[in-house]
Design brief:
The structure is a homodimer of 566-residue chains.
Chain A lengths: L8 E7 L3 E8 L5 E8 L8 E3 L2 E7 L1 H19 L10 E8 L4 E4 L20 E2 L7 H13 L17 H11 L1 H6 L2 E4 H10 L11 H7 L12 H7 L1 H8 L11 E4 L2 H7 L6 E3 L2 E2 H8 L5 E7 L3 E8 L12 E4 L6 E8 L3 H10 L3 H4 L4 H9 L10 E3 L16 E6 L5 H25 L4 E7 L1 H5 L1 H11 L3 E4 L4 H13 L6 H8 L2 E6 L3 H22 L8 H16 L2
Helix pairs in contact in A: 2-3, 7-8, 10-17, 13-14, 14-16, 16-19, 17-18, 19-20
Chain lengths: 566, 566
């Protein structure tokens, strides 16, 4: 560890769905020195809703600006209590945000939402990642992209999502022409934030991050950046205009977007001149903060999951069907960043405790803890149950939002903890399916580093994941991996490290507790997984003719063996 | 109605699982004049259990004897309050019991269980219908019967059950040789009861009922009564001995087993000489009491169901695969009685309220009523859910106890009332599958008369059954259809009517409320039923290759249409 007098720091600013967090870390080891969180004041928990349309989710860009000021000031105040900290020892700033969260801006890069004439127009605000109003446009783009000779869909798993950049802009063009017309360009939230911090918000020249562009905007070097004008014009001429005002090439986060704007620096009490990294997607910088490297899959487990892997840049980039995106430099610069995801994990557990858990487990204490206590006494396969984890569709590897949940094996004695365990197992089977798909495409997965509340709080879930996936499950040392990942890029652009990998080696790590696969459990889960895949393919793949008559019988046979072994 | 001075009465005695009910009715219209119930004093609610084996369920035959005395005395006392009643106006007695509930008897027909040396031996007691200890023997018998040239399995749906006569005796031979050796013969509960009432318990001469023999004992005129000696000996020589002491032919219930034994008559206060009908299975006499006739399916809905139909005897007897049995004269003498059943109906609803219903629906009042109140507001298909009703296996038409439940279509918003409704619908789809199987085999089903608590108490369930099955659902006028059916045969053997049909026309009927199919609902349910059958065949039929990729999508499409139509 560096001597106090030589300490250097990096600042990471992490824009989440409901709040923004600033984190100051010691660049020598990534340890947290100061942090502060600012809850977005607009809407419900920072989200602007429309009672008439449950798919709509917008944000007020003014919250992003005020959030930077407040959280960074707070983190500095917090860090200032520590020995050896001073603001002039902050070497760099990194930023991550949700994505795709595009916002329309005017000629100067000012969000339309802050202009008096658009202040009340939800279409003029930031279109939050989980806004699903653009479902029809996503299908339209997917259909057109599938026919394009460039192979636009090859790098995004075969389908363009309603959550992504072009779907949202196209929906705005179709439904709020006034806003679309007033928009000189659209920018992703991460680019808007780094632009605002560096004082360069000019759409025509501001740097754009490869991470959001590649994973959400169909940006790829293979076809010269964004999709070509002909393609975009065929959807709408106004989409082509967005491309006209877009400064390619998009950049990875080890490149500076610029230095902090003196006015911004002054407002938060930072010295001028600090370099600011190009912004990126929160989960991806979370992977960096969790120590992602070839062979180490990082899994951020929350309401849904993000499953990220990197492949060395000197290997041929794999096209992995069913994953969300494969983008050079999107996670660790110099490597291919590959993202997959499960549409619902924590959300499924919460659904079960909210809607189908009897009073015995909800009356006192945390329903999850109560169900877990009973469910962990069961052996794998002992309940005879098997579930599909598709209550919110399937992101990877089927990329099909119109799939639903399934539970099979119920008897007249099936209990709530048994169903709860089956749901946990189903999400583990979903996780394994992603790992297998990565491996099928030549990427190695030797261990998994998990982040997020469930990973930290539920040894029950983690052990099942280890047993099902048959790889060690580790937990990220930092609980703030996204902000730490942003800080790592702050450290890199600030010169503390030459490469992202070098910074990661020093600044990231895992907790001492490692969940290792139990051999007996893994054997039973291998049998159950074969049945899961039977259901997966039967219900998930088109034109797949399946024999399923064995499923219920095999579950009973496994159940009987497991009960007898008790 | 007959003048008070001319009134005549019949007595029906209905032996259920937990109690026996005596019912005295006016033979002119079937109206109830007096009734009394006697709860079996032995075991738990009349059932002898073994903590080491959950499959074991026995009864004490002494309860049957005491139950007759107590319930008949009670019914007479109750009837005696009514004008015009007197015991000498009782023209006949009918009896029904559970089946297959065989008991081992000695040379005189005395149950071994009442002998001092066997009083504590559970194997020497009556083997209650729901005793499942004989699973292995059922498979053995099925395998041997399938190879027999007689086609023994053609009349019992293709599989011999662990609940039936020969399985139970064979299991006793294998596991309690002392009892098996001491048994001169085995008799069905219904034969034991009519034998005891008439004072003829000699195994070699006492009349046996065609109903239990045909549906549970592989008795059929096509192969000369019980299975031949060679077949039985190949399983065990002791089975052949049962055949040796069996007085064929087995008889329908419009035939008298004899007249009431003077000692028995005296004990309950009846005059001597009253004729007693040959005993039969409770559900089958329930069908008679509910007014079964060609085209009218009688459905007894309880924890499970019994679905009965009769086909005129001058038609060729259909062999209906997947039904429990087709027996000439078993329900209405002169017709073929066909029985099918669903392994769980009320049991599935009770499972859901016991194990997976949140406090909002269980804290106050009846959970079924609370869930129903919410579920009845939903339109067919609106939840997007579909279930298989196999939590307790599938009796008809798959005859497979090793099938289990399935639920598909869950989202993150699926509620308990939605699941409850899906479970009710699943049982309705199961009911329709039986109706369709009957029809496929040439039997007409124009209406359904329902009996049992659910039928009487849940307009919600009945309307769904009407909409799903697309036939009118009626409710039996009598709530005691089994005892009424027994009384009808009492009336017939007592000479009040020449035929069972004539007695039924006067003594049975339905309630004024008829649940008629709603055209729009029936249309949607036809679509859902097609999806149900896809799952049914995929999971239920061996070697059936199914494409199921459409199932979740179609459910969502139906859901969206139904929500939009609201």
């Amino acid at each position: 560890m560096a001597k106090t007098s030589e300490k250097r720091f990096a600042l990471g600013v992490d824009y989440g769905t409901n709040s923004v967090r600033a984190l100051i870390v010691d660049v020598s080891d990534g340890s947290e020195v100061g942090t502060a969180v600012y809850d977005y004041p607009s809407g419900q928990n920072g989200i602007l809703l429309d009672a008439r349309d449950p798919n709509l989710a917008r944000q007020n860009p003014a919250d992003y600006v005020e959030g930077f000021y407040a959280s960074v000031r707070g983190a500095i105040a917090d860090a200032s209590k520590k020995r050896g900290f001073s603001v002039d020892r902050i070497v760099g700033i990194g930023v991550d945000t949700t994505a795709s969260t595009p916002l329309p801006v005017d000629r100067q890069g000012k969000p339309l939402a802050v202009l008096p004439e658009f202040r009340k127009d939800l279409a003029a605000h930031a279109w939050l990642w989980k806004d699903h109003t653009s479902h029809a446009e996503a299908l339209e783009i997917t259909a057109k992209a599938a026919r394009a000779k460039e192979g636009y869909l090859d790098k995004c798993g075969g389908a363009y999502s309603s959550e992504w950049f072009w779907s949202k802009i196209l929906h705005c063009i179709r439904t709020s022409p006034k806003v679309a017309k007033a928009a000189y360009c659209w920018v992703e939230q991460c680019d808007f934030v780094s632009g605002f911090i560096t004082g360069n918000t000019d759409p025509d020249t501001m740097p754009r991050g490869i991470c959001a562009a590649g994973h959400k905007g169909l940006y790829h070097e293979d076809w010269g950046g964004l999709p070509n004008k002909r393609f975009l014009s065929s959807l709408s001429p106004e989409l082509a205009r967005v491309r006209d005002h877009y400064a390619a090439p998009a950049l990875p986060s080890d490149r500076p977007a610029g230095a902090i704007d003196p006015a911004v620096a002054k407002k938060v009490g930072l010295p001028a001149g600090i370099p600011v990294a190009v912004g990126a997607i929160d989960a991806h910088l979370g992977a960096v903060g969790a120590g992602i490297k070839p062979g180490t899959l990082v899994k951020i487990i929350g309401t849904s999951t993000c499953d990220m892997l990197v492949v060395p840049g000197d290997q041929k980039a794999p096209d992995v069907p069913g994953l969300c995106g494969i983008v050079p430099g999107s996670i660790v610069p110099g490597m291919y960043g590959i993202e997959a995801g499960q549409s619902a994990v924590g959300d499924i557990f919460n659904w079960f405790t909210s809607y189908l858990t009897p009073a015995a487990y909800t009356a006192k204490g945390d329903p999850h803890a109560n169900l877990t206590q009973a469910a962990m006494k069961l052996k794998p396969g002992e309940s005879g149950l098997l579930a599909l984890d598709w209550n919110n569709g399937n992101r990877s590897v089927l990329t099909d939002p119109l799939l639903t949940g399934l539970l099979v094996g119920q008897t007249l004695h099936t209990t709530a903890p048994e169903v709860y365990r089956a749901l946990v197992e189903a999400t583990a089977f979903g996780a394994l399916t992603i790992i297998n798909r990565y491996r099928d495409c030549g990427a190695s997965v030797r261990e998994v580093v998990n982040c997020g509340g469930i990973a930290e709080k539920s040894p029950f879930v983690m052990q099942i994941y280890a047993d099902v996936c048959n790889v060690p499950m580790k937990i990220s040392r930092s609980a703030q991996t996204c902000a730490l990942g942003a800080a790592i890029f702050g450290a890199v652009v600030g010169g503390a490290y030459k490469t992202t990998e070098a910074a990661q080696r020093k600044m990231t790590g895992v907790k001492p507790t490692v969940y290792r696969p139990n051999r007996d459990a893994a054997k039973v889960y291998a049998q159950l997984y074969a049945l899961y895949m039977q259901l997966h393919d039967a219900f998930g793949l088109p034109s797949h003719a399946a024999k399923l008559n064995n499923v219920m019988k095999d579950l009973i046979a496994i159940r009987n063996r497991q009960r007898a072994a008790k």
